Structures are given as structure tokens and as C-alpha cells.
UniProtKB/TrEMBL annotation:
Domain Fe2OG dioxygenase, chain residue ranges per copy: 386-480
UniProt keyword Iron, yes or no: yes
Keyword tags: Coiled coil, Dioxygenase, Iron, Metal-binding, Oxidoreductase, Vitamin C
Region (Disordered) residue spans: 79-103
Record protein name field: Fe2OG dioxygenase domain-containing protein
PANTHER family, sorted: 2-OXOGLUTARATE AND IRON-DEPENDENT OXYGENASE DOMAIN-CONTAINING PROTEIN 2
């Protein structure tokens, strides 16, 4: 009897705990919507003000909090998980991706997708691309949206598109990812005056028209009536686009400065060695490389949330995690310039700038992760991963506590817990991005130090707040150019490309195509 009541109490408290977590998410969602609406309103007012001919210093752009290394932020409600309510008729759950063959010859350059000019401002600038084919050039800051939050739509289907969209910030009432109008702001050539900018993409001409089409009516309704007023707004936007383009240069400069002046504490952690990896992980990889490997067989080696395609396995030895963290803390303490991973994460570190790609992350992806993803995610590019963006995220009681509900700019993501001591801060998953949170069953995965969680980039997820300590995770966004070249995972359209730095956003383009695009530029 005693045992029975104990079990009952245990089960009830578990239920209460789950309920209260769900409630927290709901509350945050509400807050997020309010913040999103407020921001949108403010921006509209600002645009109106500018469009009416006021030439004050603070522009629509200035409303956006900007930092040299983080790009443009529209005052995100950092701690509030947003909700994905974006639905697009053409989007299907678990979209089948085109088959992945070997990379075609000539498909050698990395690209950034230009869709959505005032989308997020993170620059990806791998100084350290592994393949010689990845050529360092300019990144398109207009579009290197990395993490995209998906707030609930507040715009009725037939009303105007959002004024601005930002890949990381819930400024947008509904992001272009939802299949709404995306405007690619190429604008006047005077705006595209970066010295080393080489290739502009298709859509160069129609984008301004598209912008007019999409925003003229809403701007007019706000009082931006004359052609001159509209031009003024365009010029401001154009300036902001340019500002973001220069972020790329800043990133390259940071990488160079780090290489020049930063003295690593543990130089050996920059080069992947077998001894960093757990025997179980190596065993799993060996299994995958065997001729009789199958998905079912592999699943026997992994922890899985049934049916969710989120997998857990041990990755790094504890000692390696500790040394890596010591290295990263040493870097944080140094005077070296720091690039932050994205606008949602204010304390993480971009590992490519620090020089981790060539010797560590790329070999980890190519030799160890690729065999696993090939079996688990053949439909999402798991067999043809060819680049990555890697960074660490850091949560602390006085810094970032959590991460909003979002999807990644990745086909497949590996998220490894590196430490230190922390409580709570679980990762939670909803459904694939097309399904609203309200219709999604959420589940949580506890971060366990040294273990990795592998999931599809488009699987909506967020991190719950830590309640004590400090949490560091290594995040590897793995990309398959063959998949994303056809369909950008962020805007769900055929990408419109320009050359980028290093791995850039993981797109590639055939050389001959590139040449013709260069001629247009
Ligand atoms: O904090 C985490 O564990 C999640 C991080 C994440 O999802 C991301 O950076 O994309
Ligand atoms: Fe993520």
C-alpha cells in the first residue's frame, strides 16, 4: 500500500512537472508575441517618420540593436521561446529531399543565400575551409540567417507582408520562411560597392520591384506617399544592407587578428585525435562503416526518442570536454576579438574564427559524423554533408539563460554538452518547422555532459532556462549543398546566391554559372 501511494505521488509529481513546463512555454509564447507586436509597431512608426521626410539620425536601422560582431538585432525577447505557427501550403512534413549523388564537378563555391535582405545579420566567415574548393570571398550578410525563430503569425493571410524580417528575432509577424513574400534587396548598384564583392545573384533586378510590390502599400498606408519618401526609405535600407556586408570583413579581420595574436592555452585541442572520442562513439562509427550496416542495426547503439529521429550518444571523453572549455575560457579572457554565433546567442564563440574548422570540426564531420548521418538521415542530406558552421553556446545565470524556440540553418545538427555543472536547461523539441507548436507534442531531452544529441536542423527546438551553474555546448550545424542548393532551409525557396567566405552558408554553385553571374555583377 505504502509503495503504491509512493508510486502514485511520484507519477503525479511527474505530471505536474511536465504540465508546469508546458505552461512556462505557453507564457513565454504570449510574451514573445507581445514583444514581436511591439517591435513591429515601433519599426513601422519609425519608417513612417522617416518616410515623412524627417532626417533625424536615428533611422529604422538604428532602432535595431547592432553590435559589431553580432549583426543586426531587433531587440529580441531573448528568454522567450517563440512559437512556430508558420504554415505554408507547399511545405510538407519531413519533406523528401532530392537524392544525393557525389558533388558534381564544378560545384565548388560556397554561397550565401540572399533571400530576405533584412533578415538576420550574422556573418559566416570560415577562414579555415578544409577543401581547396571552398574559396574565401564575400559573404552575404543580408541573408546569412542562421537560427530562425518562428513566432506566431499575427498578420492575416491577406494583409501586407511584414516590414522587416530577421532570421533570429521575432520582429517579424511571420517570417518569409513561412512562404510569404521575400524581398531580396539588391537595390541600386551604389549600395553594392564592397570592394571585394564579386558575384551578385539572380534576382538582382526584380528585387527592388518586389520590395515595392510588397511594401509600397503598407508604407503608403503609413504616410510614405511620395516617390521621394519611398526612395528615402530605400536608401536607408540599402545603407543597412551595406553595413551588414561589412560585417563579413570584420569577421575575416577577427580571424586574422586571432591567428596573429592569440596564444592558445591548449593548442592540442585544435586537432582532432581519436583519444578525444569515447570508445562507444568510435564503435558506432565503425558499425556504420561496415558493409552490413543498417539503420535498424544502428538504432540498437543509440538512445532514441521513438519516432522523433532525435538521437543521443556519447561523443567526447570528459577530459577533452574540460580542456576544450579551459581553452574557450582562456580565449574569452584574452583581448582577442570575438565573433558570436548568432543574434540569439550572446556569449557563445564562433569556432571557425578561432581556427577549429580545418583540424577539428571538418574531420569530425567527415570521418565520424557522416557515416552516422548517412544511415539516419538520407532524406535530409545526411549522405552528402559537405560543410558546417560550428560554435559553442554558453548559458550562465547572469548571461543568457535559455534559447528561443527555433530551427537551425542546417540540414543536421549535432549538439554536444561540454559542461560545466548546471541544472535544468533541457533541450525541448516540437515538431518539424511546418507544424505549429500548439499542435506539436513537445518533449525534452536532458543535456548530459560528454553526450551529443543529433537532430534534423528543421526540427523545431529550444533550450529551457538553466536554474544554476553554467552550461556550454558545442553546436555543429551540418550542411548539404546538394539539398540546400535546391531549397533554402531558411526561406524554403530556390536560393538566390552570391559568393561567400569559406563555407559561407553551405550553398555551392557551378563555376560556369558563377562566371555568368559575375558578368552580371
Ligand atoms: O542550447 C542548446 O542546447 C541549443 C542550441 C541550439 O539549438 C542552437 O544553437 O542552434
Ligand atoms: Fe538550434
Amino acid at each position: 500500500m505504502d509503495a503504491l501511494s509512493k508510486t502514485a505521488v511520484l507519477e503525479i509529481s511527474k505530471l505536474v512537472e511536465i504540465e508546469s513546463k508546458m505552461l512556462k512555454i505557453e507564457i513565454n509564447r504570449g510574451r514573445n508575441e507581445i514583444a514581436s507586436l511591439t517591435e513591429k509597431l515601433q519599426l513601422m512608426e519609425k519608417l513612417l517618420y522617416m518616410a515623412q521626410g524627417n532626417r533625424q539620425e536615428s533611422t529604422a536601422v538604428a532602432m535595431m540593436r547592432s553590435t559589431p560582431d553580432r549583426g543586426l538585432v531587433l531587440q529580441p525577447e531573448r528568454t522567450n521561446p517563440a512559437i512556430n505557427s508558420s504554415q505554408h501550403p507547399e511545405e510538407t512534413k519531413d519533406r523528401a529531399m532530392p537524392g544525393c549523388s557525389e558533388p558534381s564537378e564544378g560545384a565548388t563555391r560556397t554561397y550565401c543565400h540572399q533571400g530576405g535582405a533584412i533578415r538576420c545579420g550574422v556573418v559566416i566567415s570560415d577562414d579555415d575551409a578544409t577543401s581547396e574548393n571552398w574559396k574565401p570571398v564575400v559573404v552575404d550578410i543580408q541573408v546569412s540567417s542562421d537560427v530562425t525563430q518562428c513566432p506566431r503569425p499575427i498578420r492575416p493571410a491577406d494583409s501586407q507582408p511584414p516590414l522587416f524580417t530577421d532570421g533570429f528575432v521575432n520582429m517579424n509577424s511571420q517570417s518569409p520562411e513561412a512562404g510569404e513574400s521575400v524581398w531580396n534587396l539588391q537595390l541600386p548598384s551604389a549600395c553594392n560597392n564592397l570592394e571585394n564583392e564579386k558575384a551578385m545573384s539572380q534576382n538582382t533586378v526584380p528585387s527592388e520591384q518586389q520590395f515595392r510590390l510588397d511594401y509600397r502599400p503598407v508604407l503608403r498606408s503609413l504616410g510614405c506617399v511620395t516617390e521621394q519618401q519611398f526612395e528615402d526609405v530605400l536608401v536607408k535600407i540599402c545603407q543597412e544592407v551595406d553595413r551588414r556586408k561589412s560585417l563579413d570583413v570584420a569577421s575575416a579581420e577577427r580571424a586574422a587578428a586571432i591567428k596573429d595574436a592569440y596564444q592558445p592555452l591548449h593548442p592540442h585541442v585544435y586537432h582532432l585525435k581519436e583519444c578525444f572520442l569515447t570508445p562507444k562513439f568510435k564503435h558506432i562509427v565503425e558499425y556504420c562503416q561496415g558493409t552490413s550496416a543498417s539503420e535498424e542495426g544502428l538504432l540498437e547503439h543509440l538512445d532514441e526518442v521513438p519516432g522523433q529521429r532525435v538521437y543521443r550518444f556519447p561523443v567526447f571523453e570528459k577530459q577533452f570536454c574540460e580542456e576544450l572549455l579551459q581553452e574557450l575560457e582562456h580565449f574569452e579572457r584574452s583581448a582577442a576579438p570575438k565573433g558570436r554565433p548568432n543574434t540569439m546567442n550572446h556569449y557563445g564563440i564562433l569556432l571557425n574564427e578561432l581556427g577549429f574548422d580545418r583540424g577539428f570540426i571538418s574531420p569530425l564531420r567527415e570521418q565520424y559524423l557522416h557515416p552516422i548521418t548517412s544511415l539516419l538521415y538520407p532524406d535530409c542530406g545526411g549522405q552528402c554533408l559537405d560543410s558546417q558552421k560550428a560554435f559553442v553556446v554558453k548559458y550562465d545565470m547572469h548571461e543568457d539563460l535559455d534559447l528561443c524556440y527555433h530551427y537551425d540553418n542546417a540540414e543536421i545538427t549535432l549538439n554536444v554538452s561540454l559542461g560545466k555543472d548546471f541544472t535544468e536547461g533541457n533541450l525541448y523539441f516540437g515538431n518539424m518547422r511546418q507544424v505549429p507548436l500548439s499542435e506539436s507534442e513537445c518533449f525534452e531531452m536532458t543535456h548530459r555532459v560528454t553526450e551529443g544529441l543529433l537532430h534534423r536542423g528543421q526540427h523545431m527546438h529550444g533550450a529551457l532556462p538553466i536554474s544554476s551553474g553554467q552550461r556550454w555546448n558545442l553546436i555543429i550545424w551540418m550542411r548539404a549543398s546538394q539539398v540546400r542548393n535546391d531549397l533554402c532551409p531558411m526561406c524554403q525557396r530556390k536560393p538566390s546566391l552570391m559568393e561567400g567566405v569559406g563555407f559561407a552558408d553551405g550553398f555551392t554553385q557551378n563555376e560556369s554559372m558563377l562566371n555568368s553571374l559575375c558578368l552580371l555583377a
